[in-house]
Structures are given as C-alpha cells and as structure tokens.
Amino acid sequence: MKGAEAIIKALEAEGVKIIFGYPGGAMLPFYDALYDSDLVHILTRHEQAAAHAADGFARASGEPGVCVSTSGPGATNLVTGIATAYADSSPVIALTGQVPTKLIGNDAFQEIDALGLFMPITKHNFQIKKTEEIPEIFRSAFEIATTGRPGPVHIDIPKDVQEGEIDIEKYPIPAKVDLPGYKPKTVGHPLQIKKAAKLIAEAEKPVILAGGGVIISGASEELIRLAELIKIPVCTTLMGKGSFPEDHPLSLGMVGMHGTKAANYAVTECDVLIAIGCRFSDRVTGDVRHFAPEAKIIHIDIDPAEIGKNVRADIPIVGDAKNVLRDLLIVLTTLEIKSKEDWLERIFELKKMSIPMMDFDDKPIKPQRFVKDLMEVLQEIDPKLKNTIVTTDVGQNQMWMAHFFKTRMPRSFLASGGLGTMGFGFPAAVGAKVAKPYANVISITGDGGFLMNSQELATIKEYDIPVVICIFDNRTLGMVYQWQNLYYGQRQSEVHLGESPDFVKLAESYGVKADRITSPDEIKEKLKEAILSNEPYLLDVVIDPAEALPMVPPGGKLTNIVHPIRVEPKIKRAAFEEIKKIREMAAIKEY
After folding, report:
1. Furthest-apart CA pair in the chain: how many Å?
2. pLDDT at 574
3. Which residues in 261-351 belong to E strands, given as ranges?
4. If you average pLDDT over every residue of the chain, what do you get?
C-alpha cells in the first residue's frame, strides 16, 4: 500500500478515531488517503487550535490526541500548542508534512527545519526518511507519548514518503518495537517507601501537595485514602486541581502565587511535605529559600529529572504515583500513627480565615458571583459534577475559576499551566467535548484569550459541537492590568482592548447562538438555557474590570499575600490621536 495509507492504518491500529488538522500541499497524499478511511477529521480554522484541541482531547480522556498540519507555516502554527502540551505533560501526536526528501535543506517552498523546531518542546521527535519506517516510527511515537511521564511526540513526514509504497506483510502494522534506553521506572524503591511511611507516621504537621501527576497516573483514589487514613490536609498545584475533591474537609485548595491563604500558610508551617507528581514551579514555590522551611520533603515523581531540580528532596521516590501510593498505604497500615488533632485544628482555623465573600449583587458583575452561580447551575444539572468539564484560558479568568470553582473529579478542570497559553481554553474545550460527548463542557475565557482563537466558532458550528463559551468581558488584559497596578505604579500600558468586537454579533455571524449577561440576576437563567440547549452557545459576561484577587509577589514568600488595589481603567487615547495625525500628514503630503 501507499505510505499515506500505511499512516492511516498505523493510526487506526493505535485506536485513534478522531484527529484535528488543517491540510496543505505537503500532506496532500495523506488527506487523499483519509478520504477513503473511517477516521473522523475535524477541520479547525487554525493549526494552533488543532494542537490545543488534540491536547484538550488528551487531557479529558487520558488517551493520546492527534493533530495534523502541512509543512512550513503549518508546522510553525502548531508550535505554541505543542509547547503547551509539553509543559503540562499531555500525550499529543503531532504530524507535520515536509517537502520531498531530495529537497530537504534546499530552502524549497514551505520548507522549515521541523526537527529543529520541535526538538525542545517534545518528548521525542521523528523524521521519516523511508516509507518502510512508518510502522515502527508510529508505534514508537505512541509508546513514548503515553508511557512514563507523558508528553507530545512529533513526526515529520516528507511528501515522497507518503507517496512511496510499503509491503505490509514484510513491515506489519502495528509494528513490534523495542526502545533501548527507554525504560520508565514505575515502581518506587521499597526502602525509600518505608522511610517515607515512617516519616509520615511520626509527623505532627504533614501536608500533601498533589500535582498533575496524580491525575495522569489515575491515583486520585489512593490520594484520598492516604489523606483520610493519616488525616493529612491536601493542597494542589493548578495542574493537580481535580485530583482531590475540593468539597472534602481536608482540601486546602491551590497553593502558590495565586493560591489560597489556607494552602500557602499550611505549606509554610508543615513539618513534612509529601509532594506527588509536581515539578515545584516558581508559581508554586515563590522564593525557594522560604518554601516549606520547617519541612522534610518527600518527593514522588515518575520523572527522575524533576527530583531536586527546584526544591530539595529529603526522601526522593521515583515511580508512578499510583503504584507508589499503593505501596505506601500498605506500609502505613502496619505503623502507629501519631495524632494530628492539634494540626487539624490549625488547618480548620486557616480555612475559616480563607472563606471568600461571593454573594455580590453589584454591577458590573463580579466574576466571583458568576462562578458561584455557574457551580449552582451545573450541580442542578449534574449533582455530583461527574459529567462536567470546564476549561479555562489564561489570566484572571483562570485564577477566579481555580479559586472558586470546586472540582470533585479528575480530568474535569483543564487549564494551561506551565506555558500559560492565551487562546488555549476555547479549542481545548472543543477537544474535550469531542472526547467526552455526553459531558457538559464549559469554556471559561477572557476576552483577550478568546480573540486569539475566536475563529473556532466556525468549527463548533460546522461540526455541531455543543460547547458553551463564557467570555469574562472586561475589555482588558486583566492579569497584566493587575500587575501594572500593583508593581508598575498604576501605569496601564497597552492593556485596554477597546469595544470591538461585539461578541454576541460575532458569534451570530458564524451562526452560533449568543446572549449577553450584564446583571447578576440574569446569570442562572441564561446559563441554564445555554447548557440545556445542547447547541454551540456563547455568553458574553460583562464583568467589573477593576476586580482582582490577592496574590504573592513574584519570588516572594508564600505568606506575603498582597491584596489588590482597586484602580479603574485609564484608557489612554494618545496613541489613537498620534496615529490619526500621522495619517492626516501622510494624506497632505500625498496631495
């Protein structure tokens, strides 16, 4: 068969049923073969959105997502989405077209060094030189992407490789592969686990820090058992949100720069910190010299490169979180556990101090009020939130959701953490809805982030993908605006988006239903209508632009929480006037 047909067969052998992509010259043989296949291809309106959609599919399902682009600008447009998946350990397979092998290196039309481009932002990178390599490379790519610490894998496919022929009796699909040197360690060392168990049993003030690795490994049940057995409070990273039910009495919420007071103080005061599947990013630790200063740190991670990279590890355990926690629980049941009552009293005191006020009736709408009403509507429709997925974009919208939306299930809260990619939320919701068609999928996004991929309104209309988009509309790049007000003397520079477009009319121009919410008493009714419509739906939620959350200054101590100052937007018109003058002078000169 042709190479392009072999690629289709290799994808099908991996269980792939849906791919996201955008065709072009270097991938025409593949798209011609796709015409006769059973694979469902979703044509996004931009390659970046294809990568984010594949990423959202992977995060919601736990299965690899696949995206496709042509060579040159198609490949470069995938980069941001693949870098996002890499930062958050999401298994995405990225296929890019390439010029024929004989033209590689000759600056041919739409040629780019895709291998060099993707090398630093993928777990592994392939370029197929011969059609016969297709079965082995595709099997290897899926194996690498989905095992150990997951991550994106890129395959660059020259056009002549797609057009060449392969004898699949000689090169069967799926291929059997052996990857020398790639043997991810999944079981923790028993002596290290015994040391950790002893330290936990004797601790007086332990805290668990759960990261995205808990969700990836499917270890939420073991995490809950550990917390309840020892009575250990649990905080999470942004990527770990959903790994532990946030309505649980032992839940502290998110830790770090934008974390809760309860979580930040508990980590600072604890004597043992059990970190599971997290990489201790700067947004979690603040100043590492003052991070968990009184604690012995147990660090459990499948990636040995993360151990000791940012924060010291007193007891490192390399292994899959689910396996390590299972073994840890077995050892702990044989030990005498020191009482944690005094510590729990302190924890509950911290939690009381952290309870936010959310019953706002003000106009413009406070985002906290919207999140509260969203939760109530979703719980009315889905009482245990088992069939609910929310995606966020990046910025203030993400932090309001991280603070006030209480997740109960893993893979129900999808956000760009490591790269912080504006434009992620909406296309990721598209991928999540495709992966979980019976779930209620809500995309929470800021107006700035939405405008980066708003063209995907065409995709959800064309394919009838019933995602509900809620735009936090303050006509401002909210997080940048907040930082400028706090740390740059209230000098608001280039953060005001203006009144264009009208988001309701924009959605309607694509044939997508839309409505605007300007008053708190409209929120529940319009949300319910949008979610129950089972159609693509956009809600333009006009929020207070001056509303902001407390935060820890960059590189600061976690307990140094700075409260925002309320500063109204100062729209700077000087630039508009200067542009107007330049145009007038140019017109006079031309005349």
Report:
1. 91
2. 57
3. 272-276, 296-301, 315-318
4. 95
pLDDT digits (tens, 9 = 90+) for 168-200: 999 999 999 999 989 999 999 999 999 999 999
* 219, 226 Cβ separation under 8 angstroms: no
Can 291 be counted among the known catalytic residues? no
Q: What is the arithmetic mean of pLDDT over 458-475?
A: 98
For residue 416, the model assigns a pLDDT of 98
* pLDDT confidence bin for 581, thresholds 50/70/90: confident
Measure the CA dihedral 20/25/29/31, to 10°: 30
CATH 3.10.290.10 fits 3-163, yes or no: no
Q: Options 3.40.50.2300, 3.50.50.60, 3.30.300.30, 3.40.50.970; which CATH number does 367-542 get?
A: 3.40.50.970
109 has catalytic annotation: yes
Domain ranges of the chain: 3-163, 190-353, 367-542
Checking if the pLDDT of 220 tops 70, the result is yes
The question of whether 455 is a catalytic residue gets the answer no
For 197, how many CA atoms within 13 A lie in the half-sphere containing its CB?
21
Q: How confident is the model at residue 572 (pLDDT cuts 50, 70, 90)?
A: low
Can you give the pLDDT at residue 522? 97
Q: Tell me if residue 133 is catalytic.
A: no
3-163 and 190-353 agree in CATH topology: yes
Structure-token match 């979610």, residue found? 531
Please indicate whether residue 110 is annotated as part of the active site: yes
Tokens 């932090």 label which residue? 399
Query: Of 336, 338, 321, 345, which is closest to residue 249 (Cα–Cα)?
Result: 345
- What the block records as the tokens of 576 is 């508009």
Q: Which of 63, 110, 340, 455 is catalytic?
A: 110
Structural tokens at position 111:
């040629």
Spell out where 454-570 has E strands: 468-473, 513-517, 537-542
Tell me which CATH homologous superfamily contains domain 190-353. Answer: TPP-binding domain (3.40.50.1220)
Say if residue 223's pLDDT is above 60: yes
- Does position 453 have pLDDT exceeding 60, yes or no? yes
Structure tokens at 543: 């929020």
- Whole-angstrom distance, CA of residue 434 vs CA of residue 436: 6
User: Which of the following is catalytic: 239, 257, 399, 479?
Assistant: 479
> 5, 14, 47, 133: which is the annotated catalytic residue?
47
| Straight-line distance from the first to the last Cα atom of the chain, in angstroms, rounded to the nearest whole number | 66
